[in-house]
Amino acid sequence: MNFETAVANLGFRDLAGISPALNLILAGIAILALDAILPMRSKLLSAWIALLALAGSLFASLHRLAVGADISAFNHAVRMDPFANAFSAIICLASTLAVLSAPKYLKLREVHLAEYYALILFSVSGMVLFGASQDLLMMFLALETMSIPVYCLVGFTRTNVYSTEASMKYFLIGAFAAGFLVYGIALLYGAAGTVRIEDLAVGLDRAPGLFYSGMALLLVGFLFKIGAVPFHMWTPDAYEGAPTPVTTFMAEAVKAAPFGGMLKVLFVGFGFEEAMQVWQPVLIGIAVLTMTVGNLIALVQDDVKRMMGYSSIAHSGYILVGVAAAAELHSTDALAAVLYYLFIYVLMNAGTFGVLILFSSKDKDANHLDDLVGLGRERPWAAALMTVFLLSLTGIPPLGGFFGKFYIFSYAIQAGMIPLVVIAILNSVVSAYYYLKVIGAMYFREPEDGARAVFYFEGYSVFLIAMLWLSAAGVVYWGIQSETPLLLAEQATASLFKPAP
Question: What is the pLDDT of residues 43-74, one digit of tens each?
Fold first, then answer.
Protein backbone atom coordinates (compact mmCIF):
# COMPACT_ATOMS: atom_id res chain seq x y z
CA MET A 1 0.00 0.00 0.00
CA ASN A 2 1.55 3.34 -1.05
CA PHE A 3 1.45 6.49 1.07
CA GLU A 4 -1.40 8.18 -0.83
CA THR A 5 -3.62 5.11 -0.50
CA ALA A 6 -2.78 4.75 3.18
CA VAL A 7 -3.74 8.36 3.89
CA ALA A 8 -6.96 8.04 1.88
CA ASN A 9 -7.99 5.00 3.93
CA LEU A 10 -7.79 6.85 7.24
CA GLY A 11 -11.15 7.66 8.74
CA PHE A 12 -13.41 7.83 11.75
CA ARG A 13 -12.68 4.24 12.75
CA ASP A 14 -9.00 5.09 13.20
CA LEU A 15 -9.83 8.08 15.38
CA ALA A 16 -12.32 6.04 17.40
CA GLY A 17 -9.67 3.36 17.87
CA ILE A 18 -7.34 5.78 19.67
CA SER A 19 -10.14 7.58 21.54
CA PRO A 20 -8.44 7.30 24.97
CA ALA A 21 -5.49 9.30 23.61
CA LEU A 22 -7.54 11.56 21.33
CA ASN A 23 -9.79 12.51 24.23
CA LEU A 24 -6.75 13.76 26.17
CA ILE A 25 -5.37 15.73 23.22
CA LEU A 26 -8.69 17.50 22.63
CA ALA A 27 -9.04 18.28 26.33
CA GLY A 28 -5.54 19.78 26.39
CA ILE A 29 -6.36 22.00 23.40
CA ALA A 30 -9.64 23.02 25.08
CA ILE A 31 -7.76 24.02 28.26
CA LEU A 32 -5.39 26.26 26.31
CA ALA A 33 -8.27 27.84 24.37
CA LEU A 34 -10.26 28.43 27.56
CA ASP A 35 -7.28 30.05 29.23
CA ALA A 36 -6.94 32.47 26.33
CA ILE A 37 -10.61 33.48 26.70
CA LEU A 38 -10.91 33.48 30.52
CA PRO A 39 -7.34 33.88 31.78
CA MET A 40 -8.34 34.88 35.33
CA ARG A 41 -11.03 32.28 35.92
CA SER A 42 -9.92 29.16 34.12
CA LYS A 43 -7.33 27.68 36.51
CA LEU A 44 -9.52 25.46 38.65
CA LEU A 45 -11.77 24.79 35.69
CA SER A 46 -8.69 23.56 33.81
CA ALA A 47 -8.04 21.08 36.61
CA TRP A 48 -11.63 19.82 36.36
CA ILE A 49 -11.36 19.44 32.58
CA ALA A 50 -8.12 17.49 32.97
CA LEU A 51 -9.68 15.24 35.61
CA LEU A 52 -12.77 14.57 33.51
CA ALA A 53 -10.67 13.81 30.43
CA LEU A 54 -8.42 11.43 32.36
CA ALA A 55 -11.41 9.76 34.03
CA GLY A 56 -13.06 9.33 30.62
CA SER A 57 -9.94 7.73 29.14
CA LEU A 58 -9.51 5.58 32.25
CA PHE A 59 -13.03 4.16 32.12
CA ALA A 60 -12.87 3.72 28.33
CA SER A 61 -9.64 1.74 28.71
CA LEU A 62 -11.07 -0.36 31.56
CA HIS A 63 -14.23 -1.09 29.55
CA ARG A 64 -12.22 -2.17 26.53
CA LEU A 65 -10.01 -4.31 28.74
CA ALA A 66 -13.02 -5.97 30.40
CA VAL A 67 -14.69 -6.83 27.07
CA GLY A 68 -11.41 -7.85 25.41
CA ALA A 69 -11.57 -5.21 22.67
CA ASP A 70 -8.78 -5.41 20.08
CA ILE A 71 -8.73 -2.50 17.61
CA SER A 72 -6.08 -1.75 14.99
CA ALA A 73 -5.85 1.76 13.59
CA PHE A 74 -3.80 3.88 11.21
CA ASN A 75 -2.83 1.00 8.94
CA HIS A 76 -1.85 -1.18 11.90
CA ALA A 77 0.62 1.38 13.29
CA VAL A 78 -1.47 1.44 16.49
CA ARG A 79 -3.22 -1.48 18.16
CA MET A 80 -5.47 -0.92 21.18
CA ASP A 81 -5.57 -4.53 22.37
CA PRO A 82 -6.06 -5.59 26.02
CA PHE A 83 -2.33 -5.15 26.67
CA ALA A 84 -2.41 -1.54 25.45
CA ASN A 85 -5.68 -0.88 27.26
CA ALA A 86 -4.22 -2.18 30.54
CA PHE A 87 -1.26 0.17 30.30
CA SER A 88 -3.57 3.00 29.26
CA ALA A 89 -5.67 2.39 32.39
CA ILE A 90 -2.61 2.33 34.68
CA ILE A 91 -1.22 5.52 33.15
CA CYS A 92 -4.55 7.37 33.27
CA LEU A 93 -5.02 6.35 36.91
CA ALA A 94 -1.52 7.56 37.77
CA SER A 95 -2.09 10.86 35.96
CA THR A 96 -5.47 11.39 37.65
CA LEU A 97 -3.82 11.04 41.05
CA ALA A 98 -1.04 13.41 40.00
CA VAL A 99 -3.53 16.06 38.83
CA LEU A 100 -5.46 15.75 42.10
CA SER A 101 -2.26 16.56 43.98
CA ALA A 102 -1.46 19.72 42.01
CA PRO A 103 -3.92 22.66 42.52
CA LYS A 104 -3.05 23.50 46.14
CA TYR A 105 0.71 23.37 45.56
CA LEU A 106 0.61 25.35 42.30
CA LYS A 107 -1.60 28.02 43.87
CA LEU A 108 0.76 28.43 46.82
CA ARG A 109 3.72 28.82 44.46
CA GLU A 110 1.75 31.26 42.28
CA VAL A 111 2.23 29.06 39.22
CA HIS A 112 -1.32 27.72 39.03
CA LEU A 113 -1.36 28.01 35.25
CA ALA A 114 -3.65 26.27 32.79
CA GLU A 115 -0.77 25.08 30.64
CA TYR A 116 0.31 22.78 33.49
CA TYR A 117 -2.76 20.62 32.95
CA ALA A 118 -2.47 20.83 29.17
CA LEU A 119 1.13 19.59 29.31
CA ILE A 120 0.05 16.71 31.55
CA LEU A 121 -2.66 15.66 29.08
CA PHE A 122 -0.40 15.91 26.04
CA SER A 123 2.24 13.82 27.80
CA VAL A 124 -0.30 11.17 28.83
CA SER A 125 -1.61 10.92 25.26
CA GLY A 126 1.91 9.97 24.18
CA MET A 127 2.12 7.38 26.95
CA VAL A 128 -1.16 5.78 25.85
CA LEU A 129 0.03 5.54 22.25
CA PHE A 130 3.46 4.30 23.33
CA GLY A 131 2.07 1.06 24.73
CA ALA A 132 -0.21 0.69 21.70
CA SER A 133 2.47 1.22 19.04
CA GLN A 134 2.97 -1.57 16.54
CA ASP A 135 6.02 -0.16 14.77
CA LEU A 136 9.18 1.46 16.03
CA LEU A 137 8.65 4.83 14.34
CA MET A 138 5.24 5.22 15.95
CA MET A 139 6.78 4.18 19.25
CA PHE A 140 9.49 6.81 18.96
CA LEU A 141 6.98 9.56 18.12
CA ALA A 142 4.81 8.54 21.08
CA LEU A 143 7.84 8.48 23.39
CA GLU A 144 8.85 12.01 22.42
CA THR A 145 5.24 13.20 22.78
CA MET A 146 5.41 11.79 26.29
CA SER A 147 8.84 13.19 27.16
CA ILE A 148 8.92 16.76 25.85
CA PRO A 149 6.03 18.05 28.03
CA VAL A 150 7.68 16.43 31.08
CA TYR A 151 10.91 18.35 30.43
CA CYS A 152 8.82 21.54 30.60
CA LEU A 153 6.94 20.40 33.70
CA VAL A 154 10.14 19.67 35.65
CA GLY A 155 11.17 23.32 35.15
CA PHE A 156 7.67 24.68 35.70
CA THR A 157 8.66 26.83 38.70
CA ARG A 158 10.94 28.96 36.57
CA THR A 159 12.16 31.18 39.42
CA ASN A 160 13.51 28.13 41.28
CA VAL A 161 17.10 27.50 40.22
CA TYR A 162 16.92 23.83 41.33
CA SER A 163 13.85 23.24 39.19
CA THR A 164 15.51 24.83 36.16
CA GLU A 165 18.69 22.81 36.70
CA ALA A 166 16.73 19.58 37.04
CA SER A 167 14.81 20.34 33.85
CA MET A 168 18.00 20.96 31.89
CA LYS A 169 19.66 17.78 33.19
CA TYR A 170 16.58 15.74 32.42
CA PHE A 171 16.34 17.23 28.93
CA LEU A 172 19.97 16.52 28.09
CA ILE A 173 19.84 12.94 29.38
CA GLY A 174 16.49 12.40 27.64
CA ALA A 175 17.90 13.67 24.34
CA PHE A 176 20.87 11.35 24.80
CA ALA A 177 18.52 8.40 25.36
CA ALA A 178 16.47 9.38 22.30
CA GLY A 179 19.64 9.24 20.22
CA PHE A 180 20.23 5.65 21.31
CA LEU A 181 16.65 4.77 20.40
CA VAL A 182 16.81 6.35 16.94
CA TYR A 183 20.14 4.73 16.12
CA GLY A 184 18.83 1.37 17.36
CA ILE A 185 15.71 1.73 15.21
CA ALA A 186 17.88 2.52 12.17
CA LEU A 187 20.05 -0.58 12.70
CA LEU A 188 17.03 -2.84 13.24
CA TYR A 189 15.44 -1.49 10.08
CA GLY A 190 18.65 -2.25 8.23
CA ALA A 191 18.61 -5.81 9.57
CA ALA A 192 14.91 -6.64 9.20
CA GLY A 193 13.89 -4.33 6.35
CA THR A 194 10.89 -3.20 8.41
CA VAL A 195 10.03 -1.24 11.54
CA ARG A 196 7.04 -3.45 12.34
CA ILE A 197 7.67 -4.82 15.83
CA GLU A 198 6.21 -8.26 15.12
CA ASP A 199 8.52 -8.69 12.10
CA LEU A 200 11.80 -7.58 13.67
CA ALA A 201 12.95 -11.12 14.44
CA VAL A 202 13.58 -11.83 10.74
CA GLY A 203 16.59 -9.54 11.04
CA LEU A 204 18.30 -12.15 13.21
CA ASP A 205 18.69 -14.43 10.18
CA ARG A 206 19.24 -11.72 7.58
CA ALA A 207 21.89 -9.62 9.37
CA PRO A 208 22.63 -10.82 12.92
CA GLY A 209 25.33 -8.23 13.52
CA LEU A 210 23.02 -5.33 12.72
CA PHE A 211 20.18 -6.97 14.63
CA TYR A 212 22.12 -7.42 17.88
CA SER A 213 23.64 -3.93 17.62
CA GLY A 214 20.20 -2.39 17.11
CA MET A 215 18.77 -4.50 19.94
CA ALA A 216 21.49 -3.31 22.31
CA LEU A 217 21.00 0.37 21.47
CA LEU A 218 17.23 0.12 21.74
CA LEU A 219 17.54 -1.61 25.10
CA VAL A 220 19.88 1.13 26.36
CA GLY A 221 17.29 3.74 25.37
CA PHE A 222 14.56 1.93 27.30
CA LEU A 223 16.79 1.48 30.36
CA PHE A 224 17.43 5.23 30.38
CA LYS A 225 13.70 5.87 30.43
CA ILE A 226 12.97 3.49 33.32
CA GLY A 227 15.95 4.76 35.33
CA ALA A 228 17.87 1.47 35.53
CA VAL A 229 21.54 1.37 36.59
CA PRO A 230 23.90 2.45 35.02
CA PHE A 231 21.50 4.79 33.17
CA HIS A 232 19.89 6.20 36.31
CA MET A 233 21.81 9.45 36.78
CA TRP A 234 18.92 11.76 35.94
CA THR A 235 16.37 10.26 38.33
CA PRO A 236 17.30 11.65 41.79
CA ASP A 237 18.14 15.11 40.46
CA ALA A 238 14.91 15.37 38.46
CA TYR A 239 12.81 14.08 41.37
CA GLU A 240 14.40 16.51 43.84
CA GLY A 241 14.35 19.59 41.63
CA ALA A 242 10.91 19.23 40.08
CA PRO A 243 7.82 20.71 41.74
CA THR A 244 6.47 17.95 43.99
CA PRO A 245 3.25 17.36 41.95
CA VAL A 246 5.46 16.89 38.88
CA THR A 247 7.63 14.47 40.86
CA THR A 248 4.43 12.59 41.67
CA PHE A 249 3.58 12.43 37.96
CA MET A 250 7.08 11.26 37.08
CA ALA A 251 7.20 8.63 39.83
CA GLU A 252 3.90 7.13 38.63
CA ALA A 253 3.08 7.63 34.96
CA VAL A 254 6.53 8.44 33.55
CA LYS A 255 7.95 5.42 35.39
CA ALA A 256 5.23 3.00 34.25
CA ALA A 257 4.77 4.03 30.61
CA PRO A 258 8.18 2.96 29.19
CA PHE A 259 7.62 -0.59 30.45
CA GLY A 260 4.65 -0.94 28.06
CA GLY A 261 6.77 -0.39 24.97
CA MET A 262 9.76 -2.21 26.41
CA LEU A 263 7.79 -5.41 27.10
CA LYS A 264 6.27 -5.35 23.63
CA VAL A 265 9.65 -4.94 21.91
CA LEU A 266 11.39 -7.55 24.07
CA PHE A 267 8.78 -10.29 23.83
CA VAL A 268 7.07 -9.62 20.49
CA GLY A 269 9.95 -8.03 18.58
CA PHE A 270 13.00 -9.87 19.88
CA GLY A 271 11.11 -12.97 20.96
CA PHE A 272 11.79 -16.04 23.05
CA GLU A 273 14.27 -17.60 20.66
CA GLU A 274 17.96 -16.91 20.10
CA ALA A 275 17.76 -13.21 20.88
CA MET A 276 16.46 -13.98 24.37
CA GLN A 277 19.72 -15.76 25.14
CA VAL A 278 21.35 -12.35 24.82
CA TRP A 279 18.92 -9.84 26.34
CA GLN A 280 17.70 -11.93 29.28
CA PRO A 281 21.12 -12.34 30.99
CA VAL A 282 21.76 -8.64 30.43
CA LEU A 283 18.48 -7.76 32.17
CA ILE A 284 19.31 -10.07 35.09
CA GLY A 285 22.64 -8.33 35.64
CA ILE A 286 21.05 -4.89 35.33
CA ALA A 287 18.27 -5.91 37.75
CA VAL A 288 20.87 -6.85 40.39
CA LEU A 289 22.80 -3.60 39.90
CA THR A 290 19.63 -1.51 39.87
CA MET A 291 18.20 -2.96 43.08
CA THR A 292 21.49 -2.80 44.94
CA VAL A 293 22.68 0.65 43.87
CA GLY A 294 19.25 2.23 44.30
CA ASN A 295 18.76 0.88 47.81
CA LEU A 296 22.30 1.48 49.09
CA ILE A 297 22.37 5.13 48.00
CA ALA A 298 18.84 5.69 49.33
CA LEU A 299 20.12 4.65 52.77
CA VAL A 300 22.13 7.86 53.22
CA GLN A 301 19.51 10.31 51.93
CA ASP A 302 17.82 12.77 54.29
CA ASP A 303 15.82 14.47 51.54
CA VAL A 304 12.68 12.35 51.15
CA LYS A 305 12.14 13.28 47.49
CA ARG A 306 15.70 12.31 46.64
CA MET A 307 15.34 9.15 48.71
CA MET A 308 12.21 8.28 46.73
CA GLY A 309 14.16 8.89 43.53
CA TYR A 310 16.67 6.21 44.47
CA SER A 311 13.81 4.06 45.73
CA SER A 312 12.21 4.26 42.28
CA ILE A 313 15.48 3.04 40.78
CA ALA A 314 15.42 0.05 43.11
CA HIS A 315 11.82 -0.72 42.20
CA SER A 316 12.79 -0.75 38.52
CA GLY A 317 15.16 -3.55 39.50
CA TYR A 318 12.35 -5.54 41.13
CA ILE A 319 10.25 -5.15 37.99
CA LEU A 320 13.14 -6.34 35.81
CA VAL A 321 13.26 -9.51 37.95
CA GLY A 322 9.68 -10.18 36.80
CA VAL A 323 10.59 -9.48 33.17
CA ALA A 324 13.53 -11.91 33.32
CA ALA A 325 11.34 -14.58 34.96
CA ALA A 326 8.69 -14.19 32.25
CA ALA A 327 11.35 -14.67 29.59
CA GLU A 328 12.67 -17.82 31.24
CA LEU A 329 9.20 -19.32 31.75
CA HIS A 330 7.78 -18.11 28.41
CA SER A 331 4.85 -17.06 30.60
CA THR A 332 2.34 -14.28 30.06
CA ASP A 333 1.15 -14.83 33.64
CA ALA A 334 4.56 -13.70 34.88
CA LEU A 335 4.17 -10.57 32.78
CA ALA A 336 0.78 -10.08 34.43
CA ALA A 337 2.59 -9.94 37.79
CA VAL A 338 4.68 -7.07 36.37
CA LEU A 339 1.51 -5.18 35.40
CA TYR A 340 0.02 -5.73 38.86
CA TYR A 341 3.22 -4.44 40.47
CA LEU A 342 3.11 -1.28 38.33
CA PHE A 343 -0.53 -0.71 39.31
CA ILE A 344 0.24 -0.94 43.04
CA TYR A 345 3.43 1.09 42.63
CA VAL A 346 1.38 3.96 41.19
CA LEU A 347 -0.84 4.05 44.30
CA MET A 348 2.04 3.83 46.77
CA ASN A 349 4.00 6.67 45.21
CA ALA A 350 0.97 8.92 44.77
CA GLY A 351 0.23 8.72 48.47
CA THR A 352 3.83 9.22 49.60
CA PHE A 353 4.34 12.38 47.58
CA GLY A 354 0.82 13.54 48.39
CA VAL A 355 1.66 13.74 52.11
CA LEU A 356 4.74 15.84 51.29
CA ILE A 357 2.60 18.19 49.20
CA LEU A 358 -0.02 18.44 51.95
CA PHE A 359 2.37 20.14 54.38
CA SER A 360 4.41 22.16 51.90
CA SER A 361 4.05 25.91 52.33
CA LYS A 362 4.47 28.84 50.00
CA ASP A 363 8.15 29.22 50.83
CA LYS A 364 9.24 25.70 51.71
CA ASP A 365 8.66 22.13 50.57
CA ALA A 366 8.19 19.53 53.30
CA ASN A 367 10.81 17.24 51.78
CA HIS A 368 13.44 16.77 54.47
CA LEU A 369 13.22 14.20 57.26
CA ASP A 370 13.34 17.05 59.79
CA ASP A 371 10.19 18.51 58.21
CA LEU A 372 8.25 15.39 59.23
CA VAL A 373 9.43 15.24 62.85
CA GLY A 374 6.41 15.09 65.15
CA LEU A 375 3.87 14.50 62.41
CA GLY A 376 2.51 11.46 64.27
CA ARG A 377 1.58 13.66 67.21
CA GLU A 378 0.37 16.76 65.37
CA ARG A 379 -1.45 15.15 62.45
CA PRO A 380 -1.90 11.46 63.33
CA TRP A 381 -4.18 10.69 60.37
CA ALA A 382 -1.61 12.01 57.87
CA ALA A 383 1.20 10.10 59.60
CA ALA A 384 -0.93 6.94 59.51
CA LEU A 385 -1.49 7.31 55.77
CA MET A 386 2.23 7.93 55.18
CA THR A 387 3.01 4.83 57.22
CA VAL A 388 0.68 2.71 55.08
CA PHE A 389 2.38 3.87 51.89
CA LEU A 390 5.91 3.36 53.22
CA LEU A 391 5.15 -0.08 54.65
CA SER A 392 3.63 -1.07 51.31
CA LEU A 393 6.77 0.11 49.50
CA THR A 394 8.78 -2.00 51.92
CA GLY A 395 6.65 -5.05 51.15
CA ILE A 396 4.83 -5.62 54.44
CA PRO A 397 1.69 -7.82 54.26
CA PRO A 398 -1.22 -7.53 53.71
CA LEU A 399 -0.57 -4.34 51.72
CA GLY A 400 -0.39 -4.24 47.94
CA GLY A 401 3.37 -3.81 47.80
CA PHE A 402 3.85 -7.17 49.52
CA PHE A 403 1.70 -9.02 46.99
CA GLY A 404 3.36 -7.22 44.09
CA LYS A 405 6.76 -8.49 45.19
CA PHE A 406 5.33 -11.87 46.17
CA TYR A 407 3.97 -12.58 42.69
CA ILE A 408 7.14 -11.42 40.92
CA PHE A 409 9.45 -13.38 43.22
CA SER A 410 7.22 -16.48 42.99
CA TYR A 411 7.56 -16.59 39.22
CA ALA A 412 11.32 -16.00 39.51
CA ILE A 413 11.54 -19.02 41.84
CA GLN A 414 9.53 -21.08 39.35
CA ALA A 415 12.06 -20.05 36.71
CA GLY A 416 14.89 -21.39 38.88
CA MET A 417 16.33 -17.95 39.61
CA ILE A 418 16.90 -18.62 43.30
CA PRO A 419 20.07 -16.46 43.67
CA LEU A 420 18.29 -13.53 41.98
CA VAL A 421 15.33 -13.84 44.36
CA VAL A 422 17.65 -13.99 47.37
CA ILE A 423 19.35 -10.78 46.21
CA ALA A 424 15.95 -9.14 45.68
CA ILE A 425 14.73 -10.14 49.16
CA LEU A 426 17.94 -8.88 50.77
CA ASN A 427 17.47 -5.59 48.94
CA SER A 428 13.91 -5.38 50.26
CA VAL A 429 15.30 -5.81 53.77
CA VAL A 430 17.80 -3.00 53.13
CA SER A 431 15.02 -0.74 51.83
CA ALA A 432 13.11 -1.26 55.09
CA TYR A 433 15.76 0.83 56.88
CA TYR A 434 15.21 4.06 54.96
CA TYR A 435 11.43 3.69 54.81
CA LEU A 436 11.32 3.01 58.57
CA LYS A 437 13.63 6.00 59.08
CA VAL A 438 10.84 8.24 57.82
CA ILE A 439 8.28 6.50 60.06
CA GLY A 440 10.68 6.92 63.00
CA ALA A 441 10.99 10.64 62.32
CA MET A 442 7.21 11.02 62.35
CA TYR A 443 6.58 9.08 65.56
CA PHE A 444 9.72 8.83 67.67
CA ARG A 445 11.79 11.97 67.12
CA GLU A 446 11.38 15.28 68.91
CA PRO A 447 11.93 18.68 67.26
CA GLU A 448 15.38 20.15 67.93
CA ASP A 449 15.82 22.63 70.82
CA GLY A 450 12.45 21.64 72.25
CA ALA A 451 10.58 23.51 69.51
CA ARG A 452 7.08 22.28 68.87
CA ALA A 453 6.51 20.98 65.37
CA VAL A 454 3.63 22.75 63.65
CA PHE A 455 1.96 21.19 60.64
CA TYR A 456 -0.53 23.49 59.04
CA PHE A 457 -2.57 23.73 55.89
CA GLU A 458 -2.30 26.84 53.75
CA GLY A 459 -5.81 26.22 52.54
CA TYR A 460 -7.52 22.84 52.44
CA SER A 461 -7.54 20.96 49.18
CA VAL A 462 -10.41 18.58 48.54
CA PHE A 463 -8.48 17.29 45.52
CA LEU A 464 -5.42 16.36 47.55
CA ILE A 465 -7.29 14.86 50.50
CA ALA A 466 -9.35 12.73 48.09
CA MET A 467 -6.17 11.55 46.36
CA LEU A 468 -4.56 10.50 49.64
CA TRP A 469 -7.53 8.49 50.89
CA LEU A 470 -8.17 6.89 47.48
CA SER A 471 -4.53 5.84 47.21
CA ALA A 472 -4.48 4.41 50.74
CA ALA A 473 -7.74 2.54 50.17
CA GLY A 474 -6.36 1.13 46.92
CA VAL A 475 -3.11 -0.04 48.52
CA VAL A 476 -5.02 -1.87 51.25
CA TYR A 477 -8.00 -3.17 49.26
CA TRP A 478 -6.20 -4.22 46.09
CA GLY A 479 -3.58 -5.92 48.21
CA ILE A 480 -6.11 -8.06 50.04
CA GLN A 481 -8.25 -8.44 46.89
CA SER A 482 -5.36 -8.82 44.45
CA GLU A 483 -7.11 -11.50 42.36
CA THR A 484 -9.26 -9.03 40.39
CA PRO A 485 -6.48 -6.74 39.06
CA LEU A 486 -4.26 -9.79 38.54
CA LEU A 487 -6.97 -11.49 36.46
CA LEU A 488 -7.33 -8.37 34.29
CA ALA A 489 -3.54 -8.24 33.94
CA GLU A 490 -3.45 -11.88 32.82
CA GLN A 491 -6.14 -11.15 30.24
CA ALA A 492 -4.07 -8.20 29.03
CA THR A 493 -0.75 -10.01 28.68
CA ALA A 494 -2.37 -13.03 27.00
CA SER A 495 -3.28 -10.74 24.09
CA LEU A 496 0.33 -9.72 23.55
CA PHE A 497 1.05 -12.68 21.27
CA LYS A 498 -2.29 -12.87 19.47
CA PRO A 499 -2.29 -11.78 15.81
CA ALA A 500 -3.78 -8.38 15.06
CA PRO A 501 -7.36 -8.37 13.73
Answer: 788 889 999 999 999 999 999 998 888 888 88
